[in-house]
Batch of 2 targets.
Target 1
Amino acid sequence: MSTAVSTQLLDVLSGAILLTAVLTLWRRDLASIIRLVTIQGVLIAGLALLLGVDEHSTELYLAALGVLILKAVILPTILRRVLRDSGEVRETAPLVNVTASLLAAAALTLLAYVLSGPLVALAPSAATRALPVGIAVVLLGFFMLVTRRRALSQVIGFLLLDNGITTTAFLATSGVPLVVELGVSLDVLLVVLVLQIVAARMRMAFGSTDLDGLNGLRD
Amino acid sequence: MGMLTSTGTLDPGGPAAAAILFVPVVVPALAALLAAVLGWRRWIAWGAVAASAAVLVAGVVAACATDDGSVLAAGSLLRADALTAVMLLVIGSVSVIATWASVGYIEGELRTHATTARGARRYAILVPLFIATMSGTVLAANLGVMWAGIEATTIVTAFLVGHHGGRRAVEATWKYVIICSVGIALAYLGTVLVYFASQHSGGADGADGTLAWTELVAHADRLDPGVMRIAVVLLVIGFGTKMGLVPLHSWLPDAHSQAPAPVSALMSGVLLSVAGYALLRYRVIAVAALDPAFMMTLLLVVGIGSVAFAASMLIAQRDYKRMLAYSSMEHMGLIAIGMAVGTPFAIAALLLHVIGHGLAKAVLFCASGQILELTGTTRMDGVKGLLVRQPVLAGVFALGIAALLGLPPFSMFGSELAMARATADAGLSWVVGLALVLLLIVFVTISRPVAAMLFGPHDDTPQPDTGDGQTMSAARPTSSSIPLILGLLALAIIGVATPLDGLLESAAAIVGTR
């Protein structure tokens, strides 16, 4: 593949990853948010595949396959199961409304560009120039985590954060060593499984997964 | 031992060394496997104690082998220097106390139907696994593997925090998993950036990045400062979360107060310090790669912030388990301040503090579990006249508090004094002054209500929410205090006879600077 084409593909993929993250803040319907996260998983796998083609690296092909299975198949399946069990289809009352969320997303993306200046400066290349996208997705995930009140939304926020970090890792380093990659993937999977079980317990104990109910422990 | 070489020392890279390094991970994991297959049995619970003792013994062997500065290694996966040995000693000794206390704890819960056979089995699986993940973390030669180990502790402990079920346990578990996972995810991003910097540290030929700690330390001065600055902030916030430092500390009082007492002992006594250990490893790299003042300022801010926040939360505290939790936060803050100073003397002092805090908190959390079982309440005003009702337990609790507040002969007296001196030597007298004021507040706010718990008029009216557990637990054998008394003895011996000084100096030489 010629460099120009792969650079363009890289930019398109990175842009799409950022777009899916912003759209999760726009949508209130939890099922479509899960769809967006799934698409984002596919895009990240595509990014790893593209970098693998560029560098002729078997390790990256494997990583791409792993990302695809984990982020586009297993994790969305778990999320859909939580959604089905909870019967709550919408994020009812986010602390920040949609318009303000989208404005915040714009501000956070700008912030990501400022923050990642030193990262791009260290090794300017097509991949590292797209690094701010990864950082922006991290910030957007963090934003979702602190402004949403449903247990499922918080889990999705955590997954966005993790997707952002994975994107950053691929763009900056063409992937961390495979051992570490495996450990990280396993951890994310286990965290989501643990959260799924805790959310189920929460429903039994509180009758809903509205996190405003979590106010029994204070000083 | 036949595996020792003729000179009597351990061959650092040989099979004997490798075996020693695998023991702290493999033996507790086997204990967990046994519990997974057979469920809760009394002898399996004692097996967990034996596994903890094996960790402690491996720690002692590693300490003897490394206190001259040598390094044990098992391939490129595991390594142990004097710092690792110190951490293994803490993990081993606190685990022995906690698993020993667990035997009586779970039996009591089964008797009063506070837990089911299934809950007991889960507990028997997860506690040894928890110990294995912590050992793996401190033994990891690679910073990526170390990160994975710390994250694994969150997963393993999630259901231990939620052991009791019910609204409060669910709430504590949710906060714990979400906040710690986010914190540790930030630490992962920091790790990725360190790897990125190492990929570009060797000029044109340096395309191979590394996360091996020794290699990173050797080339730390070549890492790009711009990238490292971002990485270090992420690492301090990330591992700081797991250590209970501001700003992502809010999980700590909830998780430590809701977890079963022996688990709180492990979480507070060692897990926090294991996260601190990760920061110690990264600090050496950060100081060489950046302007040293950057790391110092960062650690001072989170350290002083944590001590101040903990002191303020202790002022109106009415729950003794939450009081102990905030006290952990205060001590972790002090350790962060010691790390900020970072001279070998300060590091040796903070490691002694880690040991002292681990033992004292293990004793106190286990004792608080017995007080809870006895009185049915965690409110301090619900406990009166403990000295009359349970003299041994009350004595253990009182001595533990004395140790925690830094009174002699216990080792935290020496370590707090040494940290103060090291901080003053580094020209940070204002920090010492500030910390002393905060420690005075802590001293008063802890000692007054505890005195009321110990003395005070003996109240005979049964607590309303205990049910039939009251009569059963009133007859609790004093043998349950044995591990706690051993812990206090160890604290006093370390404080008076200072047997660990050589080891601590070697450890401090590894990660201390200037």
Note: Chain B has three domains: 13-141, 142-290, 349-514.
Target 2
Amino acid sequence: MKVIIVGCGRVGARLAKQLDAEGHQVTVVDQLVSAFNRLGRDFGGNMIVGNCIDEAVLRRAGVEKADCFVSVTNGDNRNLMAAQIAQRFFKVPRVITRLYDPIRQSVYREMGLETFCPTSLGADLVRDYFLTGVNRGHETADDPSTVGAS
Amino acid sequence: MSPAGEPPYVIIVGGGKVGYHLARHLIERDYEVTLVEKDAVRAEWIEHQLGTVSVMVGDGDEMAFLATTGIERASAVIGTTGDDEDNLIVCQLAKTKFSVPRTIARVNNPHNVAVFKALGVDAPVSATEVLMGLIEAELASELVRGVAVKASGACLVDLALPAVSGFVGKPVAEISLPKGGIIVCIVRGGRPVVPTPETVVEAGDELVVFSQLTDVAALGEAVARG
């Protein structure tokens, strides 16, 4: 798969490394060159420095031929705009965006955007632990691919 | 829409230079205006300057906050922040959640104009593009040169139409050129179009005009101003 990830923070970098290791063609976009340090030396994908809500930058990242697009910058509106450019303007088949605000999540889900919300996911995890004594938050933390990630 | 007789109600999101001056301008023209600004200090300053405007401190992209601005009765919502993503989301929320009839967004990156249109903003306005157009028009009026037709004193002039030209959108019959210049050909997308009086001139067209050599400078100005 050709995957574009915008936002090379903790989530973006981790996802990029995983998909790259699994053999997918990954391109990461971030405004700051220093953000790419998170990818480590073994990362074999492309890195594009630029503004993810500029369609010229997305074209450079290969959005026209991408199979998947993920927006995980630290701004909800920025993620929403980038994801909508990918989905509605460039017709990328699979687009998903992170939103911290659950209200905005429900609005944009109604408008046909795939989203995930760490705020509600996190709250649900903690609530489940309180109610059942089982902490599902540990399930992915033991994943070997996270070893050495910073 | 506002009932007849009442002033139209407009919500401006973003109290920077653009938002502030726009609010002032609209109030002078008897609009009812609410200005939304994130920064409390800036908001207080604007309220002090404008007096009659209602300034609300808050996040224009928070649904719960927008609902308190009286947005259901607004004729228009205008996003004037310096961030394209914020202007876009405000307009989309206004349109889809509050059925605001008209959404207008300041577009800071001219690349984004087409994107804003595709994503449902009624009127994306790019100050950069407008400014570039005006400067281009100024340049054009300086740079127009004619090709002389033998030694007759007449010439053919190739005039690139700036997007801001008043000629754009008019049929040839309604375009009056100085001292009887005649549009003999329109170059559109690199191809010649033989104009009829009904042919409507589009932005980006080049007009090939038959004129007197002495009138070339005036032609350039006419095209720039329309």
Note: Chain B touches chain A at residues 61-64, 83-86, 88-89, 92-93, 96-97, 109, 111-112, 114-115, 118-119 (CB under 8 Å).
